[in-house]
Amino acid sequence: MARGGRRDEPIDRSSGPLAEFVDDLRRLRGETSLEEVGRRIGYHPSTVSRRLKPVELPPWHFVEVYVRACGADRTRTWLALVFFFITTWVGQDYLAPQ
């Protein structure tokens, strides 16, 4: 199904790893519409659109089902998830005493 509706706003990839990650997710979608991806994963298209903005890191579950819905194989899915965890670790001090 070809893309229809609004066009995605361009993402400035130089603004950081979150922007790069979300832009990569968008590129993975190719010509598939938000409506079609949403139907495949059980999300409303507006939710899919909101998750694909470089404002906050999308939830792990969304990344997993989104990558699969875009037709990526298991290797690509796991690479996306590894990158997801790497980007969430950056700037966090999980080992410091609380």
Note down, in words, how this protein is organized.
The protein is built from five helices and no strands. It has 98 residues and is an all-alpha fold. The chain is globular, with a radius of gyration of 14 Å. The model has no long low-confidence stretch (mean pLDDT 82).
Would you count the extended β strands for me?
0
Q: Could you report the average pLDDT, rounded to the nearest whole number?
A: 82
| Number of distinct helices | 5
Question: Measured on Cα atoms, how large is the radius of gyration?
Answer: 14 Å
Strand content: under 5%
List SSEs in N-to-C order: HHHHH
Largest sheet: none
What's the N-to-C terminus distance? 50 Å
Tell me the structural class: mainly alpha
Share of helix among residues? 55-70%
What is the 3D form?
globular
Summarize this, please?
The protein is an all-alpha fold.
Q: Which keywords apply here?
A:
98 residues, mainly alpha
What's the SSE blueprint?
Blueprint: H1 17-29, H2 34-41, H3 45-51, H4 60-69, H5 74-89
Helix pairs in contact: 2-3, 4-5
